[in-house]
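look at this stuff:

>
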Amino acid sequence: MTDIIVNRRMDQREWLALVLLSALWGGSFLFAGLQVKWLPPFTIVFLRVALAAVILNVLIRTLGRTMLGDAATWRAFFGMGILNNAIPFCLIVWGQGHIASGLAAILNATTPIFTVIVAHFTTSDEKMTTNRLVGVIVGFAGVAVLTGADALKGLGVDVLAELAVLLAAISYAFAGVFGRRFKRLGIDPIVTATGQASASALMLLPVVMLADTPWILPVPPMVVWLAAIGSAVFSTVLAYVLYFRILSTAGATNLSLVTFLIPVSAIVMGAVALGEHLAPRHFLGLAFIGAGLAAIDGRLLSRRKNAGETHAG
């Protein structure tokens, strides 16, 4: 199969999918927040991927799809499970237990920066461009403004937790590039999501048993179980089907832009659903993020350039 077009721009459908993905992943912070008071980090992550794996396996059987059984495909599933689930999920959940969620959001928003760098050096068709570099920097500044200066007050207080979230961002960057191979293998996005979730659950099971000994934990209330189910269904099953579909058409760098949109989704959902107040910095941050995304997309700048050339002629 042909590979991704060089530095491809996303179309309207892909941008809409990216916004939906940001909302689904934005909800994972709420779900984790409801569980963290009752469950240790590894158990939270395991419940998320294990429930998702069960749902996805049932779903593909219902749809008449079959899981591929060759060793090369399962090595790829385990590789993706490590880079895209096991490492970043555990690092972020652990990090959020020691630093403010706003600071964690800023650190997580470095994912596109790392993805641009990783993709530039490891791919032939997602090279760094001036527009992308400028757009990533402006978008990151927007996330920092959106989250607020208060989030930076804890910077440096718990260096290990900060490094954990940064390492998670780097892991996501490598996962985006690594995951491009599933398109070349001709694997459907829902099958890829199923394989990744299944591999992640298998890897995390012994870790949870040894580190958390869940059988001695007190039984959590119903809201914790509902949060675990919500995290599995919305933030994992639906999210990763979208993730691999976007990755297969738009590439790793474009996909990584979702980390800019996650704080936006969280703030908009808070304002609409909970009536939370939007401060001036929120609108300023949104403007920065919009400018960064426009620079990365490139079409607006191209139109202005063409209009200038037409006017000059």
Notes: The CA atoms of residues 145 and 285 lie 5 Å apart.
